[in-house]
Write a structure and sequence with these properties.
The protein has two domains: 30 residues; 208 residues, Immunoglobulin-like. Helix content is 19%, strand content 37%.
Length: 308
C-alpha cells in the first residue's frame, strides 16, 4: 500500500513538472530477497552496525547459523572419537587368573600334494652365504605338516601376557634369518645378531610400530629393536642380500603359537569357552576355524590349508 501511495504521489509530482506519468525515480525500490544489502560506510574504513547486522542476516546460512553448524559438527566428531576410544579399550585383552584352563593342540597340514621347495641362487658373498638356498616360504614335512604356520586363538581374556626376562633372538647366520618367523609378546626387545661377520641390514616394515632400517656391519654384533605394540605379521628383510626375508609376530595375548617342522602346535591354559582361531601362513594366507575348550581337558584338532 505504501508503494502504491508512493507511486501515485510521485506520478503526480512528475506529471506536474514534465507531463509524464512514469514512476521510475523517487520511490525506494524493494530489495530482492536473494541479494544482500549494500553496506554503507559511516566513516573511513567503517561499516555501520545496523548494516553489518543486515548483511549477516541476508547470508545463507546466516552468520549465527554458520557458527552453530560448525559447533554441532565438532561435537559430533568428538562424540565419534570418544566412542571409538571406548570401543578400543573394551576390545583390549584382559588378564585374569585361569585355574581351570584347557589345552588346544593339533596339526596344520597341507591339503593336497605339496609343491617342491623352491631354490634360491646366492648372488653375493658366496664365501659366507654358500651357493644356493632353500626357499623358506612354504616348508611341508613328510606327513604333510606345514612349518612356521601361526595359530592364534582370539581370546578376549586369559592369563597375563608376560614379556620374557631374556630377549628373543633373531640371528643372521649363513645369510639366512634364524628363526625364519620369530614369535614374541608385544613389548619385547628383539636382539638382532650378526653371526656372519659381513655387512647385513635389518629392515622391518610395520603398520603399527615404527619401522626399522639399520645397517649391521661386522663390528655391530648385536642391534636391539623394541616392538611395543601388538602387530603381525611384520615383514623383515636384508637389503644387502635380497633373498633374506622373514617375519616377526608381536602377539597381544599368550594364546599364539608357531607350528614346528611337523606342523604341530600346542596352546595351554585357555579359559573354557568357544573360540575362533586364526591360522596364517605366508604363502597360503589366512583361515579361521572354530573350537570349543573344556575345563582341564585337551582339545585336539587337525586343520588343513591349501592354495587359494
Amino acid at each position: 500500500a505504501a508503494l502504491r501511495m508512493c507511486s501515485a504521489e510521485t506520478t503526480r509530482r512528475r506529471s506536474a513538472r514534465s507531463g509524464t506519468s512514469s514512476c521510475r525515480s523517487g520511490c525506494p525500490r524493494p530489495r530482492h530477497p536473494s541479494r544482500p544489502p549494500v553496506l554503507r560506510r559511516v566513516g573511513p574504513g567503517r561499516v555501520s552496525e545496523t548494516n553489518h547486522r543486515a548483511w549477516c542476516g541476508s547470508l545463507r546460512p546466516p552468520c549465527a547459523q554458520q557458527k552453530e553448524v560448525v559447533m554441532r559438527r565438532e561435537l559430533v566428531l568428538s562424540a565419534f572419537a570418544l566412542l571409538a576410544a571406548v570401543a578400543s579399550r573394551s576390545a583390549a585383552y584382559e588378564a585374569v587368573a585361569v585355574t581351570d584352563g584347557g589345552t588346544l593342540s593339533g596339526t596344520v597340514k597341507f591339503d593336497g600334494t605339496p609343491p617342491a621347495p623352491g631354490k634360491i641362487a646366492v648372488t653375493k658373498d658366496p664365501e659366507v652365504c654358500g651357493q644356493e638356498k632353500v626357499a623358506p616360504e612354504l616348508l611341508v614335512g613328510a606327513s604333510g605338516g606345514i612349518a612356521n604356520a601361526v595359530v592364534s586363538v582370539k581370546a578376549s581374556k586369559g592369563k597375563k601376557l608376560e614379556v620374557p626376562a631374556q630377549n628373543p633372538v633373531f640371528d643372521q647366520k649363513t645369510c639366512e634369518f634364524h628363526p625364519h618367523i620369530l614369535l614374541f609378546p608385544a613389548g619385547s626387545t628383539v636382539d638382532v645378531l650378526n653371526s656372519d661377520g659381513i655387512l647385513h641390514n635389518i629392515h622391518t616394515t610395520s603398520q603399527t610400530n615404527p619401522s626399522a632400517n639399520q645397517a649391521q656391519p661386522k663390528y655391530k654384533a648385536k642391534i636391539q629393536i623394541k616392538v611395543e605394540k601388538p602387530e603381525w605379521p611384520i615383514r623383515v628383510q636384508c637389503d644387502v642380500h635380497p633373498w633374506m626375508g622373514g617375519y616377526w609376530i608381536s602377539a597381544e595375548t599368550p594364546y599364539v603359537a608357531l607350528t614346528d617342522a611337523n606342523g604341530t602346535f600346542k596352546i595351554g591354559d585357555l579359559p573354557p569357552g568357544d573360540y575362533e582361531v586364526e591360522i596364517w601362513q605366508e604363502k597360503l594366507g589366512k583361515k579361521t576355524e572354530k573350537v570349543s575348550i573344556k575345563a582341564k581337558e585337551e582339545t585336539k584338532v587337525d586343520w588343513k590349508l591349501s592354495k587359494s
